[in-house]
Amino acid sequence: MPLYPDIEPYDHGHLDVGDGNRIHWETCGNPRGKPAVVLHGGPGSGASPFMRRLFDPERYRIVLLDQRGAGRSTPSARAYDTDMRVNTLPHLIADLELLRAHLGIERWLVWGVSFGSALGLRYAQTHRDAVSELVLTGLATGSREEVALLTRGLGTVFPEAFAAFAAGVPEAERDGDLAAAYHRLLESPDPAVRERAALAWTDWETAMASQPHRSVPRYQDPGFRYGFARTVTHYWSRDHFLDAPDTVLRDLPLLKGLPGVVVQGSVDMQNLIGLPWRLAEAWPDAELMLVDDAGHNAGAPGIADLLVAATDRFGGSATV
After folding, report:
1. What is the structure's pLDDT at 316?
2. Confidence at residue 297, expressed as pLDDT on a 0 to 100 scale
3. Which is it for strands 21-29 and 34-39: parallel, antiparallel or unpaired?
4. Residue 219 in contact with residue 191, Cβ under 8 Å?
5. Which of 114, 117, 143, 237 is catalytic?
6. Is 296 a catalytic residue?
7. C-alpha–C-alpha distance, residues 290 and 25, integer Å
8. What is the pLDDT of residue 217?
9. Which residue in 202, 214, 238, 239 has the most C-beta neighbors within 10 A?
10. Residue 268 known to be catalytic
11. 12 belongs to the catalytic site
12. Model pLDDT, residue 278
């Protein structure tokens, strides 16, 4: 199914969520339509206009937000003096509840990509009555096993890129927790150290996605590059601020009865640890859809089509 046409928000603003943070939000589509909230990846990537096109604007009230420190939210993780201690998964979940109340929404469909799928799953587990359905892609749950795969396990798949990635930290730390090592570099008071670490981290990220680094426009922006790498390593080096390394997988039975769709590329690297099948087994109300020859990319041919089909299925009829 084709993407819906480009649309612009009919309302937007910044919501004070405490701790000096103001999150940017926007609403698109039908003000009286079915509410849906869109959770971007990263963590730290920020919302994209592309995400609006996955929903029928006549049937949905589409809510996009930039999570703490990302996109147009303030303060930005790009700024070295931004306090990252108040950017955690529980903070992001609390922000969603504040935004839901601010917009007067009782329940909403939760759409998440990559880290946004981990956030969406945990939000649904802890605020079950606020969620009508889940639509997820580029699956992640924030487990320690996933971080180990993405920071070290894929080194055998991309050996040249991994050698450069490991060489970006002091030699004594190369056999340890690479996310933690990079996070320390990204918090260095020396701007040159921070810049080198951010570039090395994003080079590794794009190698895993099988994309040439220079072909990703946002990674050419040193400010974005730093804020993104800083936020990712902040979460990855601390078990995503969950109470156990596999909290989201452990608590999947809490989603019993909640409808969901998971659209996953067949060559998404998370599949190497069987993540989508483990989730489908523990959450039988979710339908798993695999797309041949697609990876970790919501906009890939086939993936976007199935995401539109999923939101269409849950959208009901237009409200006027």
Report:
1. 81
2. 87
3. unpaired
4. no
5. 114
6. yes
7. 31
8. 77
9. 202
10. yes
11. no
12. 96
Contact 145, 74 (CB under 8 A): no
Instruction: Give pLDDT, residue 206.
Output: 87
Q: What is the pTM of this model?
A: 0.96
* Mean pLDDT, rounded, of the chain: 95
The residues with which 38 forms a beta bridge, in sequence order, are 64, 111
Is residue 44 a contact partner of residue 231, using CB atoms and an 8 Å limit?
yes
pLDDT in tens, 219-246: 889 999 999 999 999 999 999 999 999 9
Band of the pLDDT at 1, cuts 50, 70, 90?
A: low
Q: Is the pLDDT of residue 301 over 90?
A: no
Which pLDDT score, from 0 to 100, does residue 90 have? 98
Check: CB of residue 289 under 8 Å from CB of residue 33: no
Structure tokens at 272: 């190497």
3-state secondary structure the chain: CCCCCCCCCCEEEEEEEECCEEEEEEEEECCCCEEEEEECCCCCCCCCHHHHHHCCCCCEEEEEECCCCCCCCECCCCCCCCCHHHCCHHHHHHHHHHHHHHCCCCCEEEEEECHHHHHHHHHHHHCHHHEEEEEEECCCCCCHHHHHHHHCHHHHCCHHHHHHHHCCCCHHHCCCCHHHHHHHHHCCCCHHHHHHHHHHHHHHHHHHCCCCHHHCHHHHCHHHHHHHHHHHHHHHCCHHHCCCCCHHHHCHHHHCCCCEEEEEECCCHHHHHCHHHHHHHHCCCEEEEEECCCCCCCCCCCHHHHHHHHHHHHHCCCCC
Nearest to 37 by CA among 49, 51, 50: 51
Quick check: 151 pLDDT over 50?
yes
Residue with tokens 């939210």: 73
